[in-house]
Fold Flagellar motor protein MotS.
Amino acid sequence: MKPRRRSPEPPKGSPRWMVTFSDLVTLILVFFILLFSMSQIDLMKFQALSDSFRDRQVLDFQPSIIPAENPEQNEEIKENGDSGQLDSLDELLMEIQSFLDENGLEKVIVANRTERGVVLVLQEQVLFESGDASLIDSSYSFLDKVGTLLANMPNLVKVEGHTDDRPITTYRYPSNWELSAARASTVIRYLTEKHNLDSHRFMAVGYGETRPIVPNSGPENWEKNRRVEIIISDPKFNEDNNIHNS
């Protein structure tokens, strides 16, 4: 009787199909992890990366194809004032407004920002006696505040004198033209002499009664039209092609 042959023992370890299946599952897992990580990419950076492949010249001029990662460009943005911070005119306006609020002057002096720059509108009683162009003592505190602020900035300054439409005829001021121009000049002379400001930055204009802000229909409106306006010019705005040629 022949001895019965033993069946071969199965190989030790996991079956070969299981190893292949495990590799496949691992690859699928890695693939989904990769997809998830790509979904978290900053879209701005991804767009910049994509654009760089279209225009290879970007690599010749920028150390980094991502603008936010270029230190030199960040520094340039700060120097150009594009960082979103307030510019000098906004800061000046805030300083002036705070001064007006603290001193109860908001009803006789108006400060606002326009395309021309910061415009300060001072009613006659803040600066002068009626029919005169000599500064009164109570005007000094506000003008000193303006002079101190202007000393820290290079902007051009235009000072306009305005009157109501009632005629004036005196030895010193034959008409409203002379009175309005004299008032504008007096304000400039005080600022330049008291605060040692460059006179070339300033321009005086007398408009007389030609530019009223309200109709000259009675005492209340006459008072509003008798005013001096100080315009701290915005360099971006070219008034009448050049502020010096206004």
Strands lie at 109-114, 117-123, 157-162, 202-206, 227-233.
